[in-house]
Specification:
Layout (H helix, E strand, L loop, with lengths): L1 E4 L2 E12 L6 E7 L9 E7 L5 E3 L13 E11 L11 H6 L2 H29 L1 E2 L2 E2 L4 H29 L5 H26 L9 H10 L8 H15 L4
Antiparallel strand pairs: 1-2, 2-6, 3-4, 5-6, 7-8
């Protein structure tokens, strides 16, 4: 909540699972500046994260994407000047959601590249590691794993390109972006698991590239809205614009 005072605003509240609080200098925080406005009537406030009343939580211990730091921010009577409110009051939620399409395409692209890296590692391993006197790439079971990984990466990449093209052209990309991130995230989890399978026991060892990729892939099913949220967005757009839009 942000309450007006004679010098500007006073901010209270907090949020968990935020990217970069342990190292960030500045934050953009949503807050209700009008109690009667409801959840959608929120405003964006620029907050100096070194200001008095700002408390940072510790860096969380994550299963994957460990280079991206996540933590907690808590605001206790943080004084904000009048210039801390950019744009119109009460439009913060709408401004934040307006960038979701781009964010979803970004995470979908990340999922595709995670899977692509897993495929490259699996192809290299299958071509060099030998069992029963020949490279394991000569066995049909391994061949089908590699083919399915490549097939689904190609499909997910095309979905990402389609969503990105709509954004570049200024067209609505809510449905296309949700389809792209939903498919790419599910693909990345399933196909990095297949990459681990190609490696066998060595792929399950901490320090193996495919083991890390498998852990990294999981968050792509959650970032920028969970798979369930993406499905809700897809159906909302279907009902609003029709099945062929």
């Amino acid at each position: 909540m942000a309450e007006p005072d004679r010098n500007g605003w006073r901010r209270n509240g907090g949020k968990i699972w935020i990217h970069n609080p342990p190292v960030a200098d500045c934050g953009f925080a949503l807050a209700r500046a009008d109690k009667a406005a409801g959840n959608r009537g929120r405003s964006i406030f620029i907050v100096d994260l070194h200001a008095k009343g700002v408390e940072r939580g510790p860096k969380e211990h994550k299963m994957g994407q460990r280079a991206s730091q996540v933590g907690v921010l808590t605001f206790t009577d943080v004084a904000l000047g009048p210039d801390a409110l950019p744009g119109a009051a009460g439009r913060g939620f709408h401004r934040m959601t307006s960038v979701l399409d781009k964010g979803r395409v970004g995470i979908a692209s990340l999922a595709v590249e995670i899977a692509q890296t897993g495929l490259e590692a699996a192809v290299d391993d299958a071509g060099t590691r030998k069992q029963f006197g020949k490279a394991i790439a000569g066995f049909q079971g391994v061949q089908w794993l590699l083919a399915d990984i490549a097939r689904e990466i190609g499909a997910a990449r095309l979905l990402v390109h389609a969503a990105a093209t709509k954004i570049d052209r200024g067209q609505g990309a809510s449905k296309t972006g949700s389809i792209a991130i939903c498919c790419a995230g599910d693909m990345a989890v399933a196909r990095t698991a297949d990459a681990v399978q190609v490696f066998g026991g060595s792929g399950c060892m901490r320090g193996a590239e495919v083991e890390r990729l498998y852990r990294d892939a999981r968050i792509t099913q959650i970032c920028e809205g969970t798979r369930q949220i993406q499905r809700m967005t897809i159906v909302r757009e279907l009902m609003k614009k029709g099945a062929r839009a």
